Amino acid sequence: MPKLCGEAFWRETLRSAHYVVAPMVDQSELAWRLLSRRHGAQLCYTPMLHAQVFLRDANYRRENLYGEACPEDRPLIVQFCANDPEVFVQAALLAQDYCDAIDLNLGCPQMIAKRGHYGAFLQEEWDLLQKMILLANEKLSVPITCKIRVFPEIDKTVKYAQMLEKAGCQLLTVHGRTKEQKGPLAGVASWEHIQAVRKAVNIPVFANGNIQCLSDVEECIRKTGVHGVMSAEGNLHNPALFEGRNPLVWEMAEEYLEIVQKYPCPLSYVRAHLFKLWHHTLQVYQQLREELAKVKTLEGIVDVNRELKLRCQEEIANQKEGEKPKEGLPFFHWICQPYIRPGPKERCKENGASGTEKLVRGKRALEEEEGGNSELLSKNKQKKKLRNPNKSFDPSLKPKYAKCDQCGNPKGNKCVFNMCRGCCKKRAFKETADCPGHGLLFKTKYEKSLSWQSSQRVIQNPELSQQGDVDVGETAVLKEAGDS
């Protein structure tokens, strides 16, 4: 039976899905997908999987896809990051029997994607992408889909989408941000770009970006004409988003933890989900935030969740009539609701900086007074400062190191060659020399080797022991002569 394409694929295989849970690294695992499906999600993606690792590592395949069968977890699309056509297709062939489509990640903007040369950092390499999708479309028994980010120019974005469609992509998810728009610089996603792509291609299009509640989903579909809407951050903070509800946080947390008992996943995934669900409450109960960060078992996480629930119920019982949510939240902190990520200006205002001072300074920057000078310190540096109040992070006060004679890196203080360890090792090996400062003993080991060879020669030829004072070098020569 030929595989379905385009609109037919979306209607029949994906069951005309409108509400989609995004692929999220370590966050769209089976337990979370099942929770989301119970509360309105019609289609889910796996976390982004690394094609090369998936191909070579059986444990990776088992942990991420080949685990316990779950018929409720369909329709399902498996997403891979890859930059080699053969590797991508071979990994997809191993996954195709466990899903309804294979997605190529062309949208990840993170530094790890830049270092690995995948995700959004392939969006200029159209020849490579064509080869990957053409080969996948030819070899796979399930459709190939793509998730992309936009270019600043609408025209270029449209041509990009049309190229992917022509190569064989059967469904396109468009995140309306560029690869530079991430973290505190994310800004607002451009639905205008998404609308232009939807009008220019003949395959189904999903929209991604600016989705915090069900009304956003409906507005996005109305304005862009897309077939469905994908949510990531909004879903993590409120898994009932697609139901149009804002439930109590502990209801969602308890239900998720029950699913995890049946379909286990790494503890780090569970902890990260609870940090998202309880985000606003953990700003109030900082001590429990610390406990959640340190807990080592699932039972411990359940206990922290129970304590958070009790704290919130006590707060509700003591609530005064007419009291309103604090911190500008639309609901009280114990209710699932969006988290609006502050932009750089808002962060600087939170940190006490003026609108013109260091607007783009780090995501977690906080202001600290030290020696009368204002300095922005990360949270890690602040923790170090608490442990050692006299510690300074001023680069000008760092100790100056003598440089290696060979490469310019800091040299070892006791190195006999005045070099760093790497250069010292090369020279000591070449010259059969020792450097006690770096613990390199090539000469000593060589002499021990000659001594051992000498002793072996004497054992094999006892008459040599009668020759008197035969030095190590002469013994070695005798051995070599005897061997010849």
UniProtKB/TrEMBL annotation:
From which domain of life does this come?
Answer: Eukaryota
Swiss-Prot/TrEMBL cofactor(s):
FMN
User: Which keywords does the record carry?
Assistant: Cytoplasm, Flavoprotein, FMN, NAD, NADP, Nucleus, Oxidoreductase, tRNA processing
Start and end residues of each stretch annotated as Disordered: 347-394
Question: Mostly located where?
Answer: cytoplasm
Give compartment(s).
Cytoplasm; Nucleus
Instruction: Please tell me one Gene Ontology term that the record gives under cellular component.
Output: cytoplasm
Pfam families xrefs = DUF702 (PF05142), Dus (PF01207)
- Where does the DUS-like FMN-binding domain start and stop, copy by copy? 21-310
Tell me one GO molecular function of this protein. flavin adenine dinucleotide binding
Give the enzyme's EC designation.
1.3.1.88
As for family, the record states: Belongs to the Dus family. Dus1 subfamily.
Outline what the protein does.
Catalyzes the synthesis of dihydrouridine, a modified base found in the D-loop of most tRNAs. Specifically modifies U16 and U17 in cytoplasmic tRNAs. Affects the level of some mature tRNA and thereby the total cellular translation.
Q: What is the protein named?
A: tRNA-dihydrouridine(16/17) synthase [NAD(P)(+)]-like
- Report which gene this protein is encoded by: Dus1l
